[in-house]
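Retro notes, structure queue

What went well: the backlog is down to a handful. What didn't: a couple of records were mislabeled last round, so from now on we paste the full input next to the output in the thread. Example, using Glucose-6-phosphate 1-dehydrogenase from Nereida ignava:
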Amino acid sequence: MVSRVIPVDDFDLVIFGGTGDLARRKILPGLFRRFCAGQMPADARIIGAARSEMDSDGFRTLVRDAIIEFGGDDLSSRRELPDFLLQLHYVTTDARGDGGWKELAAQMRSGVVRAFYLSVGPGLFADIAERLTSFGLADAASRIVVEKPFGRDLETARALNHDLAKHFDESQIYRIDHYLGKETVQNLMAVRFGNILFEPLWNSQYIDHIQITVAETVGVGGRGGYYDKSGAMRDMVQNHLMQLLCLIAMEPPSKFDPDAVRDEKLKVIRALDDVETHHIVRGQYSAHGDMKSYRQDVENERSFTESFIALKLQLSNWRWAGTPFYLRTGKRMKARSSEITVVFKDPPHSIFGDEGGQHHNELSIQLQPNEGMTLDVTIKEPGPGGMRLVDVPLDMTFADALGPEADDVPDAYERLIMDVIRGNQTLFMRGDEVEAAWSWTDPLIEKWQARSDVPKPYDIGSNGPEDALMLMHRDGRRWRDIKG
Ligand code: NAD
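Corresponding output:
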């Protein structure tokens, strides 16, 4: 396969919060990878803007150190690093005051794409958006990128949308959900809508149920204060799991265009039924050996916030009525794994009798730690001895067929930043999608808050609370094993 790196137009990318954790861990190493791949124009500039006092040389040192720390050996040893660093600049900027803004405006070139990445807390979105226009940095063609969390409920999300809309048109706003930037997520759309094979079966007549698991082994880390006010529902389900659910469940858009795709995703969120109380399982991890409990980690012995949640959801539409969607996500679980599994129904009749056993197809889409897609297919166990059937995974990533280039795909952040420069919003959340997701999330949270529901304890390194297993067992189903 021939590499198809298509260079993007010349750009000035300003990263607000350019010295922060996300910028150092993901955004800047990602941009360097695109530079190495030959996708960044020679004159493109990346301008860090943050509170810390430093000059451009100081910023280059910070970025070089970040690439060494987070980019892995392969990246940090690339000989292109000095050239990349020359494309970096820095302006000390106060998002809440006037300091640095004139200098920043003076740095911007005309006739190139201008993009502003807000890698800062949402409390600064309104201040920055306002100054981008009042200091003349943004024009009608500029793009603004915002990070999660996009609000903590419908009201705050609406307020953020409103603040951004005062200065930017929706077509200029890029709300990042990095799950959408994953190669496999896009491959899911290619498999669904590029083949005749799957779509006729993609409904409740042939699909028994769908599972979405996002399991983490880490705890709340240094984010305890934020996390305890948020919990797994707000931090993971409202955005990442909801987006995955939308892509799995949506109707085929008429074309692969930002609004056509996002219109279909929005319809999925609007078709979600209210969730019954016994279809919600919340959990908190307990202490184990040297490892602290959730409550110790967040330093709140009376916390009722969930570090795990499992849900059984139903969609009220023709395609999915009768096919449940089971979602679960949690911290300190058995392994780090993000996976979607589409479990097809058993064949209506087995011609092989008892000897053949019960078999069905499963399409499994892995997003983390490794990306991949497998389809379990039932075949005859080779050799003599009758018609014994066995399920074998068919590798749908076809890495061998596509050659070594297939392994060399950009990571989610890299791809999404390049999409911003290209002006392609397909893989970004639209304002109404985010609000619809909160409209669905808020009443669920209110429901358990009204009952003062206490999360169920679960062991560190487990699959979550026993009740989450029961959520499926009661329906005669079981979760797919979490494998890292
Ligand atoms: P951080 O605290 O490490 O960095 C914040 C950055 O904002 C710093 O560069 C700081 O100088 C700058 N800043 C703060 N106040 C400022 C002001 N008044 N004026 C100018 N600059 C100011 O935070 P982070 O972890 O990099 O996260 C940034 C955003 O991205 C947050 O909204 C976070 O929720 C989100 N996010 C982070 C991650 C991650 O892995 N770190 C992942 C997903 C989303």
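Agreed that this is the format going forward. Reviewer comment attached to the example: The first strand starts at residue 11 and ends at 16.
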